[in-house]
Design goal:
Elements lengths: L8 E5 L3 H7 L4 H22 L3 E8 L7 H17 L1 H6 L3 E5 L7 H14 L6 E8 L1 H17 L10 H5 L12 E4 L18 E4 L9 H12 L15
Parallel strand pairs: 1-2, 1-5, 2-4, 3-4, 5-6
This protein binds 3-methylbut-3-enyl trihydrogen diphosphate (2 copies) and magnesium ion.
One 3-methylbut-3-enyl trihydrogen diphosphate (IPE) binds next to helix 1.
């Protein structure tokens, strides 16, 4: 029995830009540039579908391990994206924000990030979050430290610490858990993405590389999601005879 429910929040691990470029004998930068085009197409499509939340993993806290040439190029591309996409973001009523250790990003990126976030704050459509310098263990660590401080200062009592109140200490307490988690480029791992939030996310992995990912792939993922049964540890409801 299909129940055709729709996701409210889709999170995507956008992987495979490098492979897309090397398959064509191109420098990795071109893969990242094409990846930015997929970001535009997917965001536009999600906004038009009336999706509530889209979270895109764009740069992990572990991605600093890459050669400096690549991280600098990615930061440059990000800075450019944050300016060039403003018009599109405003036209589509997208509320934009970042999650991650944003204060460790280069100053110039932070400046454009803040500007785009501020500018789109009162938009009423899709909430687009870019995970930048994001690592889930780092997020949980930061949350634990802040929570422990409140406990020791007596601002919070141990009995008040619930799963929901833990969420208040994550980077964005207003972000609902993802319903559908997509990973492109065929790898079956989370790579430190949304470990707390994705506890019951439906996972969909596609071999398609991120620069080749578009509307049709998103459609396929959403269709697969709609036909799944989410049980949250319970048992399947019996369909009527
Ligand atoms: C994803 O593409 C983008 C980032 C992680 C910044 P990759 O750069 O990881 O591409 P592959 O995995 O090398 O193909
Ligand atoms: C995950 O991709 C991070 C992003 C998509 C930003 P990676 O390419 O960094 O992941 P691993 O290294 O294959 O686990
Ligand atoms: Mg990769």
């Amino acid at each position: 029995m299909e129940d055709h429910h729709q996701p409210v929040h889709i999170a995507i691990i956008m992987d495979g830009n490098g492979r897309w470029a090397s398959d064509r004998g191109l420098p990795r930068v071109q893969g990242h540039e094409r990846g930015a085009e997929s970001v535009r197409e997917v965001t536009r499509d999600c906004a038009r579908r009336g999706l509530g939340h889209l979270t895109l993993y764009a740069f992990s806290s572990e991605n600093w391990r890459r050669p400096r040439e690549e991280t600098e190029m990615l930061m440059g591309l990000l800075e450019h994206y944050l300016v060039s996409e403003r018009k599109e973001i405003m036209e589509n009523q997208v509320q934009f924000s970042g999650i991650g250790r944003l204060n460790e990003l280069p100053e110039r990126v932070q400046k454009e990030l803040n500007k785009t976030t501020e500018m789109s704050r009162s938009n009423t459509g899709l909430h687009l979050r870019l995970a930048l310098n994001y690592g889930s263990r780092g997020e949980i660590r930061d949350a634990v430290v802040r929570l422990a401080r409140q406990l020791s200062e007596g601002k919070l009592q141990e009995d008040d610490v619930t799963e929901e109140s833990v969420r208040d200490f994550l980077y964005d307490p207003g972000m609902p858990d993802p319903d559908l988690l997509i990973r492109t480029a065929g790898e079956y791992r989370l790579s430190n993405f949304l470990l707390w939030q994705a506890s019951y996310a439906e996972i969909w992995v596609t071999p398609t590389l991120w620069p080749d990912f578009g509307k049709e792939d998103l459609d396929e993922a959403i269709r697969a999601y709609s036909s799944r049964e989410r049980r949250y540890g319970g048992i399947a409801p019996r369909s009527s005879p």
